[in-house]
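SAMPLE LOG
Freezer: B-3
Tube label: C17
Construct: single chain, 69 aa
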Amino acid sequence: MSNILARNLRQRRQAAGLSQTELADRSGLSQTWVSRLERGAGNPTLETLQSLAEAFEVEVTALLDEDAA
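STRUCTURE (predicted):
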């Protein structure tokens, strides 16, 4: 799951033209945490996933979709 989340998170952030810092600000997370998640190094809670989904205005499932690309 972490590799899928990492890929989808990075792709969505880049498509939105956001830096990791900007995504961190929108989601209420730290830039370090966003970076870890994009590398597949983090183990996010449901609350973290919800914060990221809200920042992108999508459902949590969109961040975990294997077929998203």
